[in-house]
């Protein structure tokens, strides 16, 4: 999948392991080329979600948003987390304070993005989407999980998808709370996600 290239570009980050805080992705990613050069199709052409994978531009943006942590910490909602926003699972056999290798962090990221891609395929069904719309939805699925995107939890998003109303879908990409509190980082991330969906703009809104 597309992630293989992105993960390879991050091999230089291992010396930064055990950092006490999220590591800025800009200091880790060396000359990731624009994803369009790897596309074998017109990225603006809408097609079945099952034909798409997360682009390099999205993966770079997600790493910028999440940072990379090699020590297990609690995120803003209090959940044990490691790597690039990977929420710990029982089978990970890790706990707060443990550390992991760079390679394992990248394995977690690859697996989590694959899961997010599958969630988007199920979420949109037959709705055709283009690359940047798919990317924005992958970021959303990665960030909030499938349960939050269910018809019960996100009825307006699901209705917008059923109606093939792309403008309304963009309006529903705004998820800004963690632990029942508005998190400033999620406000920026939601803005970035909406820009990706509407205009293929992957830039960080904090820099504007």
TrEMBL record:
Keywords: Antimicrobial, Bacteriolytic enzyme, Glycosidase, Host cytoplasm, Hydrolase. It catalyses: Hydrolysis of (1->4)-beta-linkages between N-acetylmuramic acid and N-acetyl-D-glucosamine residues in a peptidoglycan and between N-acetyl-D-glucosamine residues in chitodextrins. It comes from the Bacteria. Its EC number is 3.2.1.17. Gene3D superfamilies: 1.10.530.40. PANTHER family: LYSOZYME RRRD-RELATED, PTHR38107. HAMAP family: ENDOLYSIN_T4 (MF_04110). Belongs to the glycosyl hydrolase 24 family. This is Lysozyme. It comes from Erythrobacter rubeus.
């Amino acid at each position: 999948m597309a992630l293989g290239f992105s993960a390879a570009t991050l091999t230089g980050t291992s010396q930064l392991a055990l950092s006490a805080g999220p590591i800025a992705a800009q200091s880790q990613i060396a000359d990731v080329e624009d994803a369009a050069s790897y596309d074998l199709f017109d990225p603006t052409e809408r097609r079945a979600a099952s034909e798409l994978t997360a682009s390099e531009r999205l993966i770079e943006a997600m790493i910028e948003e999440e940072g990379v942590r090699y020590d297990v910490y609690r995120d803003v909602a209090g959940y044990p987390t490691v790597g690039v926003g990977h929420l710990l699972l029982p089978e990970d056999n890790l706990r707060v304070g443990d550390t992991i290798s760079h390679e394992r962090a990248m394995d977690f990221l690859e697996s989590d993005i694959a899961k997010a891609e599958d969630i988007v395929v199920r979420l949109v069904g037959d709705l055709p989407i283009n690359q940047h719309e798919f990317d924005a939805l992958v970021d959303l699925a990665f960030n909030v999980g499938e349960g939050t995107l269910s018809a019960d939890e996100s009825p307006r998003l699901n209705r917008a998808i059923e109606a093939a109303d792309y403008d309304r879908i963009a309006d529903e990409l705004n998820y800004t709370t963690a632990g029942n509190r508005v998190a400033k980082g999620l406000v920026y991330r939601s803005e970035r996600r909406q820009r990706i969906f509407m205009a293929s703009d992957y830039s960080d809104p904090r820099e504007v």
